[in-house]
Design goal:
heterodimer; A: alpha/beta; nine-stranded mixed β-sheet; 8 helices; B: Butyryl-Coa Dehydrogenase, subunit A, domain 1; Butyryl-CoA Dehydrogenase, subunit A, domain 2; Butyryl-CoA Dehydrogenase, subunit A, domain 3; 3 domains; 12 helices; 10 strands; 51% helix; binds flavin-adenine dinucleotide
């Protein structure tokens, strides 16, 4: 089975975030890592490969620095990868990134199964997987917490996580695009031999032009970033004073009518 | 020279991730109860972190002592005790790698690298620590066997190792004290092997340390590592490797871990109208700690890389061992100081770095002994 896994690099959320020009984060102070949800997707792909054979291909869009995380996926056991490294693509929004992924997967001759994380730790838009599926005209399923490939390798049985801990079981045909939810598995650590092999694995680095992607950057984006800022958090505590009985009554009143929690 | 390659960065990163995810939640409990969780050791073996300097054909990674240092440093950054148990798991394999026979390498190295067997090295005795050549444990040749008798003290893994490489007297009549000794592998399931756990340690409490009693333990003569009579010199060659990760890297990681706790704290803790970090004396302390760590790390990395390039500079290694372990104590001490009263509370998770740092100045060659080595190498025989 040919499985493509989309891997994004995101800031480590422990990093220091400073917004510059009301539009971007100062990257010099940020440590980057693989998107958590994508780690689950890589693991899911590796488990399928272990069971059914085939290959796991990492598809990634972003600058030079993301190679470190592609190599991490290689060290975990992925076979090879394709990276769209083009500043013009990076300037675009999720739609442009999804277009690049779509074209990159086309370039590698398509895949039987395409996995993405359910969302990215940084933007949390949860859009990429859905858009890729739409562009590829493939069935799609989000919030996947369990997945099983049918004996004929032409269909899938999937558990989707719903609100309140409910699961929904879905059957769908292959090829398909799935957005993987955290907790579906326990991503493996890269092994030392894996790390040593990773540097020899094939990584095709391409530009938008190489994969036939003509519309890039802000022009091709469907959204516009108006302003980025860190909201001021306000810690307000109100102390109700006076006679305990009256204070208690005032508190109950507030909880009931103002905050509406009782 | 000290820039890491992409692969070395990946290894360091992988070790950090492993330590943060696997050690953090259980380290304090293991320390408090003098217990260990074997799953961590097994996982580390499966991932290839144990005995990375051992050739691939014997189950290692065929990398250098430097890469092993990078990993142990990351482990110690989270918890020195757990990191030391990892070092202890392959402690002694350096001797087999350097001087062992092909059969010994095939038999003893792969299971250690895989996290299936634990090794150990027993030199210290109740009455012979720094003065290695004063040991009295004897190994008497008897046909195809050695019969070993004596007591060993402070032996890491004494109660849990599968085998120990034991320093014994094989030629008591030799005029030169240093030529009387040999290193011999003793499997711990042999009749006559007994060990007792030492409790109540200040440092590395989750790591097993014990006394060993050897009562007429019979081992085949094939268990001799290297040459008879060369045990002392082989042990010195061994320490020139083992001191790097088992001393220096543990120390740099310990200092780094304590330092990061201090940095976090002084950014958050408020006094005199702002965070502590705004006070210049606090800044000076942070600057000094950072510089000490950087200096220690540079010294260690250089000493380790030289060994991997085939140049064993024993004075440089001794400098690295002494200096890194001393600064680990200093940095951990300042880290507590910067926490004020909170620093001595277990809950604040910084006091253990200081407790653990202390033993680093003692084992693998005390700091005094390291200085003796450095002094001798500079001054020669005066
Ligand atoms: C937790 C732990 C684990 C250990 N694990 C092992 C192990 O696995 N295998 C093993 O063989 N040993 C092990 N040791 C023993 C360790 O190596 C010794 O404790 C160390 O070598 C010091 O020996 P000693 O304790 O006998 O002290 P001593 O040698 O008695 O030293 C006492 C003091 O005198 C100083 N001193 C001694 N000689 C000189 C000198 N020539 N000049 C100046 N000062 C000197 C020392 O520096 C020290 O400060 C371990 C020890 C500990 C605490």
């Amino acid at each position: 089975m040919k499985i493509a896994v989309c891997v994004k690099q995101v800031p480590d959320m422990e990093s220091k975030f400073t917004v510059v020009d009301n539009s971007r984060v100062d990257e010099s102070q940020i440590a980057f890592k693989m998107n958590d949800f994508d780690e689950f997707a890589v693991e899911a792909a590796l488990q399928i490969k272990e069971k059914l054979g085939g290959e796991v291909i990492i598809v990634s869009v972003g600058p030079e620095r993301i190679v470190k995380d592609i190599r991490q996926a290689f060290a975990m056991g992925a076979d090879w990868g394709i990276q769209v490294q083009d500043p013009q693509v990076d300037e675009g929004d999720s739609f442009v990134v999804a277009s690049a992924i779509n074209k990159a997967i086309e370039k590698i001759g398509g895949a039987d199964l395409i996995l993405t994380g359910v969302m990215s730790n940084d933007n949390q838009s949860a859009l990429t997987g859905i858009m890729v599926a739409d562009m590829m005209k493939l069935p799609h399923c989000t919030n996947v917490v369990k997945l099983e490939i049918g004996g004929d390798q032409k269909s899938l049985t999937i558990n989707r996580e719903l609100e309140g801990g409910l699961n929904e079981v879905v059957e769908m045909p292959l090829p398909a695009v799935l957005s993987i939810q955290s907790g579906i598995n326990q991503p493996r650590y890269p092994t030392l031999p894996g790390i040593m092999k990773a540097k020899k694995k094939r990584l095709d680095v391409v530009k938008a032009g190489d994969i036939g992607l003509s519309e890039v950057g802000k022009a091709a984006s469907k959204t516009e970033l108006v302003k980025m800022f860190i909201p001021v958090s306000e810690h307000k505590a109100e102390i109700i004073q006076g006679d305990p009985k009256q204070a208690a009554a005032a508190l109950v009143n507030k909880l009931k009518n103002e905050v509406k929690v009782i | 020279m000290l820039e890491l390659t992409a692969e070395q960065r990946d290894i360091k990163q992988a070790a950090r991730e492993f330590a943060e995810k696997e050690f953090t939640d259980i380290a304090r409990e293991l320390d408090a109860n003098e217990k260990f969780d074997d799953n961590i050791w097994k996982k580390a073996g499966e991932l290839g972190f144990l005995g990375m300097f051992i050739e691939e054909k014997y189950g290692g990674a065929g990398l250098g002592h430097f890469e092993q240092c990078l990993v142990i440093e990351e482990f110690a950054r989270v918890d020195t005790g757990i990191a030391q148990t990892m070092v202890a798991a392959y402690f002694g394999t350096q001797l087999i790698k350097l001087f062992g026979t092909e059969e010994q390498k095939q038999k003893y190295l792969p299971p250690v690298c895989a996290g299936k067997w634990r090794a150990g090295m027993a030199s210290t005795e109740p009455d012979a620590g720094s003065d290695v050549a004063a040991i009295t444990t004897t190994a008497v040749k008897n046909g195809d066997e050695y019969v070993i008798s004596g007591n060993k003290m402070f032996i890491s893994n004494a109660n849990i190792a599968d085998f120990l490489v034991v320093l014994c007297v094989t030629d008591p009549q030799n005029k030169k004290k240093h030529d009387r000794l040999s290193t011999i592998i003793v499997e711990t399931d042999r009749p006559g092997y007994e060990a007792n756990k030492l409790h109540g340690k200040l440092s590395i409490r989750c790591s097993d340390t014990g006394e060993v009693v050897l009562k007429d333990v019979h081992v085949p003569k094939e268990n001799l590592v290297g040459k008879e009579g060369k045990g002392f010199y082989q042990l010195m060659d061994f320490f020139n490797r083992a001191r790097l990760d088992g001393g220096g890297a543990l120390a740099v990681g310990t200092a780094q871990g304590a330092f990061e706790k201090a940095v976090n704290h002084v950014k958050k803790r408020k006094a005199f109208g702002g965070p502590l970090g705004r006070l210049q004396i606090v800044q000076a302390k942070i600057a000094e700690m950072a510089t000490l760590i950087e200096a220690g790390r540079s010294l260690l990395y250089r000493a380790a890389q030289k060994v991997d390039h085939g140049e064993v500079d024993h004075a440089l290694i001794a400098m690295a061992k002494w200096y890194t372990c001393e600064i680990a104590v200093k940095v951990a001490d300042e880290a507590i100081q910067l926490h004020g009263g909170y620093g001595i509370l277990q809950e604040y998770n910084v006091e253990h770095y200081w407790r653990d740092a202390k033993v680093l100045e003692i084992f693998e060659g005390t700091k005094e002994v390291e200085k003796v080595l450095i002094g001798k190498s500079i001054l020669g025989k005066v």
